[in-house]
């Protein structure tokens, strides 16, 4: 008799133990729930012990299953890490990240030259997409999301704190008459498609009514809206996490002292129970360090 079970059975058991769901484990592994059930049965037959209690609404680890999962997890992590280290040694190391276009263009992109200057020989693949990719079933290592917890199947770290406040260029500040909210009269609101409801969010969170009339200029990207505002084409609701540097150097000026937390915040996500490769760990550490350096409030 073999002393160790099939590694595939153990991998499936680890995922199922983490979720206590055949369906979620199947989703993570990219197989069917039936295939998960088959492998669990094979492992239980090999071990001659029941690892899960089956119920109509799902499964639950038995006491033996809990002990086995706790003992198995460190060993599987070591296997994964050892495999990643040896396959990445001496080769070009890649890290894949999915990120909101605004953050990619205004925050991450300008910093990448500094990362490459570290000489890590890491190829960072940046996929800027407003559509949310399910990190659990993708081949991305990292995601940066503008949202609210929970993020199922993911470990999360808050990247930085985001506030919203109306802003305009110095030229608009100097030439436009302003209403009781501080907003410039007869000046268009510059918006992007993704954050087109920012003005209503800011007004609602500050307890103010909307202006009686307002015209808008709409852009497909937030970076385009920022550039238009810098050129004096209108005012916009600024996300301090993205335009803090422009507020700090005076290129954009807050129209109100009322800054309120954005309804969503920026989080760095990685897959639960899936150890990062060494290059991905290096990149995550660098990302968090960059965010920490930028965390000082803008003035």
From TrEMBL:
Keywords: DNA-binding, Transcription, Transcription regulation
Record carries keyword Cell division: no
Coiled coil location: none
Domain HTH lysR-type, first and last residues per copy: 5-62
InterPro entries: LysR-type_TF_proteobact-type, LysR_HTH_N, LysR_subst-bd, WH-like_DNA-bd_sf, WH_DNA-bd_sf
Protein name: LysR family transcriptional regulator
Keyword presence, Transcription: yes
Family: Belongs to the LysR transcriptional regulatory family.
Lineage: Bacteria, Pseudomonadati, Pseudomonadota, Alphaproteobacteria, Sphingomonadales
Protein source organism: Qipengyuania qiaonensis
Domain of life, per lineage: Bacteria
């Amino acid at each position: 008799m073999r002393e160790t079970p099939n590694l595939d059975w153990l991998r499936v058991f680890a995922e199922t133990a983490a979720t206590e769901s055949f369906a979620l484990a199947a989703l993570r592994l990219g197989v069917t729930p039936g295939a998960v059930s088959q492998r669990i049965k094979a492992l239980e037959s090999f071990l001659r012990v029941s690892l899960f209690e089956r119920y109509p609404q799902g499964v639950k680890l038995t006491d033996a299953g809990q002990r086995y999962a706790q003992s198995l997890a460190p060993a599987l992590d070591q296997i994964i890490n050892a495999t990643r280290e040896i396959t990445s040694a001496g080769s070009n190391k890649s890290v894949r990240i999915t990120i909101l276009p605004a953050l990619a263009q205004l925050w991450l992109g300008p910093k990448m030259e500094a990362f490459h200057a570290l000489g890590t020989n890491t190829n960072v693949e940046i996929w800027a997409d407003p559509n949310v990719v399910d990190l659990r079933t993708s081949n991305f290592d990292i995601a940066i999301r503008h949202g609210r917890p929970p993020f199922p199947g993911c470990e999360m770290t808050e990247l930085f704190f985001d506030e919203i406040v109306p802003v305009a260029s110095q030229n608009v500040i100097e030439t436009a008459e302003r209403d009781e909210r501080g907003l410039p009269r007869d000046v268009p609101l510059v918006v992007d498609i993704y954050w087109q409801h920012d003005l209503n969010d800011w007004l609602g969170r500050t307890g103010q009514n909307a202006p009686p009339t307002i015209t808008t200029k709409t852009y497909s990207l937030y970076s385009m809206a920022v550039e238009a505002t810098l050129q004096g084409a209108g005012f916009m609701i600024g996300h301090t996490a993205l335009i803090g540097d422009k507020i700090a150097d005076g290129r954009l000026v807050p129209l109100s002292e009322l800054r309120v937390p954005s309804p969503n915040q920026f989080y760095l996500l990685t897959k639960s129970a899936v150890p990062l490769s060494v290059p991905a760990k290096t990149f995550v550490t660098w990302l968090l360090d960059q965010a920490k350096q930028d965390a000082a409030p803008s003035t």
